[in-house]
Amino acid sequence: MATRGFPNQIPEFNGSSWSSWVGRLQFYFEANNITDPALKRANLLTLCGEQTYDTVCALIQPSTPAAVSYDDIIAALQKHYDPRPSEVYSRARFQRRDQLEGETVSAYIAALKRLAAHCNFGTLITTATGQERDAASSANPTMLPLDVMLRDRFVCGLCDESLQQRMFAEKDLTFNKAYDITVRAESAGHQQREIRRNTEPVHQTSNQPNHSVDASENTPPSDVHGTTTPAAPSVLYDLNAMKLGTRPKIFTEVSVHDQLIKFEVDSGAACTLISEDTFRTSWPSDAPTSQQDDTHLRTWSGQNLPLLGSANVRVNYNGKTHTLPLLVVKGSGSSLLGRNWFASLGVTICGINQTPSQDVVQQLQEKYEIVFSEEIPGNEGPPVTLELLGNAQPKFLKARPVPFALRTSVEKELDKLEQQGVIEPTQHSQWATPLVVVRKKNGTICLCGDYRSTVNLATKASSYPLPTPEEVFSILRGARVFSTLDLTQAYQQLKNNQKLSAGSDHIVIEDGVVRYLTSTFEVPNVDFGTFMRNAWRQHEEKTAIVDGTSGESCTFAELDRQGRSVAAGLKSLGFVPGDVATFVSVNSLDQLVALFGAIFAGAKVTFEKTSLTGIFSLSLSKAFVAFGKCNDMLQFSKLKNGPCDQTEQPAPRDPDDVLFVFYTSGTTGQPKGALITHRNFVAQVTGVASEKTTFFERDVYMGLLPFAHPLGLCVTCCQMVNGAMTVALRTMGIASLLAACGKYK
């Protein structure tokens, strides 16, 4: 049978999508009843094109095409043009795929299914037989079915938050059910927008260049677009402009999908579009994936602009990258940069008499120079007075050593504070408070004094009631514009009454003693357990911890209750305040419950890193906490869920008592134990959590850093203080991190 007489021969393979071309080839064989392997090989090598034929010859050397079977040639080309990616990489791409702006639900589902092709997910629950599901489960017990993974990724990646919330509320949600709900909701939204659409014509005059973009004004004037009312039941965008005079057009160049395209900036166009000729010229290969679009375009004269389709393209402009929708119109014509790209690209429209935004900023900075000044003028109100108790005795504490890595930064910060008039050197003082160094998010440091250990014990406390939420909301009622004011070094702008303070505001550093001329922020004078429980009370019903492996979670109130149960269980076993508890565990929900339970019981906590025997002998551990298979040991679940008197307060501890003993890895031959007191750790957490631009209540923190490390535990506690949710991850692999981000973000 000769192929010359066959109708509708498929085009040559262009190197873009091998799987698509070879699929069409199989249907070509089926349509023409070609079953003989030799004829299949002959047709393949005839239809594939010259370049692909040369590739075949190179791949099968030293053999010739006539000596190699059809199946072997297909396998070689498959491996060359469409190699199978790794499972981990494929799943990472699948988990990171969210619905793009302007992307339809059907297109989003199709994209997810393409990405899932190489993810090696299990069989579909809805279509597989019981025998197939059992076989898949026995081969890989942890393999999730494809429709379950599609459902989870589809729901988590939806752009519409209200629709996503509806999915979360659905009971027994399946992939087919989620798809049906979203498609119907999307269709209803299109219909609603069509009904409510404003049909009044809107015109934009262009008698002057109203765009704040770099423009080249060297092209002749153009024709005019007008507005019409849509007649078809679909989204319709109007392209409007009125011709006044012969002002030249405004152009700018934008990088679209790695190709530089010259656009006419048109504030009268609701959408951004290019012609079919421009699309094919710009991307002869590796073009953006296009899709059908029901958008209708009309000129002012009522002429329809036939739409070829739309694509979500990668746009780079002024150093910023965005993914934006682009319409492709059949034929040839100008490329228009419409209003739907303005916000993303930073394009603004200025009125005739409008002052440029840069001038406005400069005028505000000049008018309110004192607000933007780096200097600290200080509060003009009455000074702060530290009123000492009648029997107060001065307390002078030694300076704490500053790490060598921070000494230069500390010296510069002290010099800066002295120049700003915040501190000044002094020769003698009966009071001295140790310096506390807090590292900020931007890499700089903040200095304060640990006054809880000195002057706060000897001063009279003043009560300043804070307004309740109801009072604040009453004041804000009717307000429409809100702003956040962050005072630079706010506490240090308050001046002290030096005569009445009696030197109690002095801090001691390694080079001597300095005294504060202003006030500083304070560290709570409580033990760590009380400090954390006070923070939890503000977020009792919020989720505190989620175990990234088991999925088990608990609220802040449940964390408090379970911690108390563990403390009561340890107490019943003879554990008393001051005893040492050693922890051997990876990050988990139970680890944090046990940790706070031991702290509530008044324990000193240490973590095993090297030799258990050495740790036990050095720390004199009385309790050993581990998770896993440990014979003849009390199960932790019995402690966590055991009875306790919720009215009984946790064992009180002095803030200067030892809280943690963190051991080094023993690189010097013997592990070294670093003692951290309750006050030390409360100061660290308070300092880090005070960065309100870093931690927020709505955050979801991925607990990848080990909780057994000072930094990992400190950051986790900061999230708890701010009411954020922590996901405990047991491994530090990128796959588990990406999976958790996709699930809990």
CATH topology of the largest domain: Rossmann fold
Secondary structure: number of strands: 24
Radius of gyration: 35 Å
* Termini gap: 59 Å
CATH first level of the largest domain: which class?
Alpha Beta
Largest sheet: 7 strands, mixed
CATH architecture annotation of the largest domain: 3-Layer(aba) Sandwich
CATH superfamily of the largest domain: ANL, N-terminal domain
Residue fraction in strands: 15-25%
Which outline best applies? Answer: globular
What number is the mean pLDDT?
75
Q: Strand pairing plus helix content: what structural class?
A: alpha/beta
Poorly predicted runs are 1-6, 198-236, 240-244
Number of domains: 5
Number of helices: 25
